[in-house]
Amino acid sequence: MQFHHHGYVSGDPRVGPAAGTGLNRPVELPEDVDVLIIGTGPAGMILAAQLSQFPDITTRIVERRDGRLVIGQADGIQARSVETFQAFGFAEQITQEAYQICGMNFWSPDPADPDKIIRSGRTVDDPTGISEFPHLIVNQARVLDYFAEAAVNGPARITPDYGLEFIGLERDDEEEYPVNVTLRVTAGADAGAERQVRAKYVVGCDGARSPVRDSIGRKLVGDVAFHAWAVMDVLAVTDFPDIRTKCAIQSRHGSILHIPREGGYLFRMYVDLGDVTPEDKGAIRATTVETAVVKANEILHPYTLEARNVAWYSVYEVGHRLTDKFDDVPVGSDRHPRVFITGDACHTHSAKAGQGMNVSMQDGFNLGWKLGYVLTGRSPATLLDTYSAERQVIAKNLIDFDKEWSSMMAKKPEEFENPAALGDFYVKTAEFPAGFMTEYPPSMLIGEATHQALAAGFPIGKRFKSAPVRRVADEKPIQLGHHHRADGRWRIYAFADDAATDSTTLAEWAHWLAASSDSPVAAYTPPGSDLDSVFDVKVVYPRLHTEVDITSVPPVFFPRSGPFQLIDYEKVYAVEPEHDIFDLRGIDRASGCVVVVRPDQYVAHVLPLSATDELAAFFASNMLAADQMPGTTRSDSEQLVR
């Protein structure tokens, strides 16, 4: 964590100074806003936390409830989400309070007595070491609390406006604020009153029954599996030996997905209620918690479970539905989106793969920085077209995966040819539910894989997979990716060629980046801003830190920061001898390379150090030059060249 560059800080360094719209932020919802977020679920809160890093934008988030969520339905936190929490500054805190899944056990009928279950298999949760972050279980309400803290601590000081329900919207592109939104007050003396808010952009993060989705004519399309499950968060006394281990339990009486919860005592059980006929018409949802507990005991036999307290209970039928587009632009239209939908408003599926909250958060992370760039003039409006294009495909892949997983969970033991099939599937597909199979195709934000061989372990379009390095200035070992914060900046990593610190190739690239008018740093950094305010540029040398002469490192890797123009020493790295990042990520030591990473942590390009024209062309496709931003001139922007 870096601070003091704006002067001495004696309080909590996570709470930066307010700026822009965060200064004297009005308590009442303004009539005109840049971004109006509907709903304080996972997608809405990560969106607010990201946009809080853009204090020149007026962002408000409204919620029909009269206060924070007390208990949430979702609880599974995949490793990719914990990586994201690191970007927002709270991975360590939430990991401390969460339950960590280290493995999963499988139970099936005892061949000697099929009425009883026995443990039939054990698996490690992350057998391949796909991430240094763990797989967690924690209440959704706590996740939202942490994002709320990040949003209010950001320079825009964003806080939810509770007690306001979305009613409808109209779009008029002739207006400066084209989306006119009708809201209704849900609590207090003014309950029932309506008010109008004009917005440049609206984002519906308002769940599976999304009225925002309905208002733009989108529909969830799909099917129901006609299989019902009861789910309960329980405090119980039991003799089941794996009560504190994640388990898939299959018996002659049905199945249970068992998930321990945070705190050491609470656990969640998804209890199989069996097939449902179309004629049922939802009657299965009236199943009582007492009936579900009886069913759980039948499945667990010979073990017993006595429920002492049920914190939350619900019954649902497995459904898989997808919206064909995640914005308000009709197919074939050349206009740009003004209204977006995220999360459950776009895609619904079973809860047993632990994907709903995780994928929803990535929807919000994907969209947040793009809205920030367009509204601040850094990027053209076409950037917003990429949100639906990128995320709709990911949602389709998720639903295809969940159909297979949920159908396997619903099978009877005798329907499996191989008793170990469920465990084998869990291990074989572990990378997908962990959140690491997302791969965006080439676009204005994703380059072609022409030079992928220079860094084979950083696949273009996939998330930047961190690796250990050693910071040269203070000799501190760190994870390189952990410094990729959700501050809206691009990351440009220069991996030096194996020619020591006086490498001509690296020196020429660094000089071009600092001094050429074609450099993205010169072209797209706003006048008067710090040199690294848009691009966080780091170098990694293919040698030990003791072999790096810091006085020979090009000056672009020592940018000046803050009003005192202090030197930032946290941009220069070397390898960790036992975990060499060049070996771990397949980086070409002889020639080095440049790895470009988007603000949402996805690898955008891999290029040779000599490919300055290609690097300039890539950013020209998705950014607007500083002299094209409001209130700037080319002579102003040229002052950035140092």
What does it look like?
The protein is 23% helix and 27% strand. The chain is of the alpha+beta class and 642 residues long. It has three domains: 20-71 and 138-220 and 321-428, FAD/NAD(P)-binding domain, CATH 3.50.50.60; 98-133 and 223-318, D-Amino Acid Oxidase, subunit A, domain 2 (D-Amino Acid Oxidase, Chain A, domain 2, 2-Layer Sandwich); 449-640, Phenol hydroxylase, C-terminal dimerisation domain (Glutaredoxin, 3-Layer(aba) Sandwich), CATH 3.40.30.20. Strands 6-5-13-14-15-12-16-18 form an eight-stranded mixed β-sheet, sandwiched between helices. Strand 26 and strand 27 form a beta hairpin. Helix 1 (42-51) runs parallel beside helix 4. The longest helix is centred in the middle third of the chain and has 26 residues, at 385-410. The radius of gyration is 26 Å and the shape is globular. Mean pLDDT is 91; it is low at 631-642.
In summary, what is this structure?
This protein is an alpha+beta fold and 642 residues long. 23% of the residues lie in helices and 27% in strands.
Report low-confidence residues grouped into runs of 5 or more. 631-642
Any idea what the CATH architecture of the largest domain is? 3-Layer(bba) Sandwich
Strand content: 25-35%
Largest sheet: 8 strands, mixed
Across the major sheet, the strand order is 6-5-13-14-15-12-16-18
Main CATH class of the largest domain: Alpha Beta
